[in-house]
Amino acid sequence: MQKYNTSQREILISFFKEHADELLSVNDIAAGVSDKQISKSAIYRNIAMLSDEGIIKHFVLEDSRKSCYRYISNRECKSHFHLTCKKCGKTMHMPKSTSEEIVNLIGENSAFKTDISQTVFFGLCENCK
Ligand SMILES: [Zn+2]
Ligand SMILES: [Zn+2]
To answer: The whole model's pTM is what?
Structure first.
Protein backbone atom coordinates (compact mmCIF):
# COMPACT_ATOMS: atom_id res chain seq x y z
CA MET A 1 0.00 0.00 0.00
CA GLN A 2 1.38 3.36 -1.03
CA LYS A 3 -1.49 5.23 0.56
CA TYR A 4 0.56 7.26 3.05
CA ASN A 5 3.47 8.07 0.77
CA THR A 6 2.47 11.52 -0.38
CA SER A 7 1.89 12.85 3.08
CA GLN A 8 4.76 11.22 5.00
CA ARG A 9 6.97 14.19 4.36
CA GLU A 10 4.30 16.64 5.51
CA ILE A 11 3.57 14.59 8.60
CA LEU A 12 7.25 14.66 9.51
CA ILE A 13 7.62 18.35 8.78
CA SER A 14 4.62 19.21 10.92
CA PHE A 15 5.98 17.01 13.71
CA PHE A 16 9.29 18.87 13.53
CA LYS A 17 7.42 22.18 13.55
CA GLU A 18 5.54 21.23 16.69
CA HIS A 19 8.88 20.50 18.37
CA ALA A 20 10.86 23.29 16.76
CA ASP A 21 13.03 23.98 19.80
CA GLU A 22 13.89 20.41 20.61
CA LEU A 23 16.48 18.00 19.40
CA LEU A 24 14.73 14.85 18.29
CA SER A 25 16.21 11.42 17.90
CA VAL A 26 14.89 9.04 15.27
CA ASN A 27 13.19 7.14 18.11
CA ASP A 28 11.48 10.32 19.34
CA ILE A 29 10.29 10.99 15.81
CA ALA A 30 9.12 7.42 15.28
CA ALA A 31 7.23 7.52 18.60
CA GLY A 32 5.75 10.91 17.77
CA VAL A 33 4.31 9.77 14.46
CA SER A 34 3.52 6.21 15.54
CA ASP A 35 -0.19 6.68 14.89
CA LYS A 36 0.51 7.73 11.31
CA GLN A 37 1.70 4.32 10.13
CA ILE A 38 5.01 5.42 8.71
CA SER A 39 7.63 2.70 8.58
CA LYS A 40 10.97 3.32 10.23
CA SER A 41 12.73 3.08 6.88
CA ALA A 42 10.40 5.73 5.45
CA ILE A 43 11.18 7.92 8.43
CA TYR A 44 14.91 7.51 7.83
CA ARG A 45 14.50 8.22 4.14
CA ASN A 46 12.45 11.37 4.72
CA ILE A 47 14.77 12.62 7.45
CA ALA A 48 17.76 12.20 5.13
CA MET A 49 15.94 14.18 2.46
CA LEU A 50 14.86 16.98 4.81
CA SER A 51 18.39 17.15 6.17
CA ASP A 52 19.89 17.41 2.66
CA GLU A 53 17.47 20.21 1.87
CA GLY A 54 18.44 22.09 5.02
CA ILE A 55 14.95 21.91 6.49
CA ILE A 56 16.25 20.05 9.49
CA LYS A 57 19.74 19.90 10.90
CA HIS A 58 21.61 16.87 12.13
CA PHE A 59 23.47 16.89 15.42
CA VAL A 60 25.39 14.27 17.34
CA LEU A 61 25.16 14.80 21.08
CA GLU A 62 28.60 14.71 22.60
CA ASP A 63 27.70 12.88 25.80
CA SER A 64 25.42 10.17 24.52
CA ARG A 65 26.67 10.05 20.91
CA LYS A 66 23.02 10.12 20.04
CA SER A 67 22.03 11.31 16.59
CA CYS A 68 19.45 14.05 16.75
CA TYR A 69 17.66 16.41 14.45
CA ARG A 70 16.23 19.84 14.84
CA TYR A 71 13.88 21.78 12.63
CA ILE A 72 15.35 24.96 11.13
CA SER A 73 12.21 26.97 11.59
CA ASN A 74 12.47 29.91 9.30
CA ARG A 75 14.66 32.53 7.74
CA GLU A 76 14.94 34.33 11.07
CA CYS A 77 16.73 31.35 12.52
CA LYS A 78 19.49 31.84 9.98
CA SER A 79 20.40 35.25 11.41
CA HIS A 80 21.17 34.31 14.99
CA PHE A 81 23.15 31.68 16.85
CA HIS A 82 21.57 28.84 18.75
CA LEU A 83 22.38 27.52 22.17
CA THR A 84 21.66 23.85 22.58
CA CYS A 85 21.67 21.98 25.86
CA LYS A 86 23.74 18.83 25.38
CA LYS A 87 21.84 17.07 28.12
CA CYS A 88 18.16 17.63 27.37
CA GLY A 89 18.51 18.94 23.83
CA LYS A 90 16.56 22.13 24.41
CA THR A 91 17.51 24.88 21.98
CA MET A 92 17.45 28.58 22.71
CA HIS A 93 17.68 31.40 20.21
CA MET A 94 20.38 33.95 20.88
CA PRO A 95 19.26 37.52 20.28
CA LYS A 96 20.28 38.74 16.84
CA SER A 97 22.24 41.70 18.24
CA THR A 98 24.31 39.42 20.49
CA SER A 99 24.92 37.04 17.60
CA GLU A 100 26.15 39.87 15.42
CA GLU A 101 28.44 41.15 18.16
CA ILE A 102 30.04 37.73 18.38
CA VAL A 103 30.44 37.51 14.60
CA ASN A 104 32.09 40.94 14.62
CA LEU A 105 34.42 40.00 17.48
CA ILE A 106 35.53 36.83 15.74
CA GLY A 107 35.98 38.74 12.49
CA GLU A 108 38.09 41.41 14.16
CA ASN A 109 40.38 38.90 15.76
CA SER A 110 40.85 36.43 12.96
CA ALA A 111 39.36 37.75 9.71
CA PHE A 112 37.13 34.71 9.88
CA LYS A 113 33.59 34.98 8.58
CA THR A 114 31.35 32.94 10.86
CA ASP A 115 28.34 31.29 9.29
CA ILE A 116 25.61 32.09 11.78
CA SER A 117 23.10 29.62 10.38
CA GLN A 118 25.55 26.72 10.79
CA THR A 119 26.80 27.53 14.27
CA VAL A 120 25.42 26.13 17.50
CA PHE A 121 26.84 26.57 20.96
CA PHE A 122 26.59 23.49 23.13
CA GLY A 123 26.33 23.68 26.87
CA LEU A 124 23.91 23.12 29.72
CA CYS A 125 20.60 24.87 30.11
CA GLU A 126 19.29 26.38 33.30
CA ASN A 127 17.57 23.16 34.32
CA CYS A 128 20.48 20.86 33.57
CA LYS A 129 23.49 22.72 34.89
ZN1 LIG B 1 16.41 30.52 16.06
ZN1 LIG C 1 18.95 21.02 29.50
So the answer is: 0.64
